[in-house]
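Action item from last week, closing it out:
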Amino acid sequence: MSIRLIIADFEPVIRAGLFSFFLNTDIQIVEEATNAELLFQKIGQYEPDVVLMDTDFPDGNGFQLVERIRENGYQGRIIFFSASDRQTSFARALAVGADSYLLKRVSRTELIRTIRSIVVNNDKSYSGELRRVANALKLRTFIEPQNPLTPREIQVLRHVAYGLSNKEIASSLKLSIDTIKEHIQNILRKLDVNDRTQAAVWAVRNNIIQ
């Protein structure tokens, strides 16, 4: 049985390279897309097993697009394929529910292995960095402030420090946006800081994230 794949990338050389990668394998590229809107349409049309997509397009943000794709009912696998190795990108990928995040310097063998593992074995094959970020968002040990944070507030603060929006934090933690706003207000008050940027700086300096 072949794995049906849609690739989405603005750069022609990347798309051409992926076509060559999957020649003579069980991974079949059924369609390609060069922008966010086209990808959204193609997913609805072809319902592929997996989407391999960049994080940025000329007409939209890949993370926001994944939210839109999921809201439209797509149940297949989504893998980000990006040149960006920023921790914020890894955290946002986790928050929107991507199945994996691969850097464009990944080998052909690793790319094929990851796709097969996710589709066939239902695994989430995070890279080392993505796995580290996922673990960091769950950690609970840190230097306690004078006004102690609850375990949930610690978790929210880690998401804030990685640059996630309230909506993305709510999606990641399966909470309402109003609940996240309340947690952030409590965090700011307890840390005695004025805004989320200062809270993020506090988190980094106190080893909330590493």
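Closing note: The chain has a mean pLDDT of 88.
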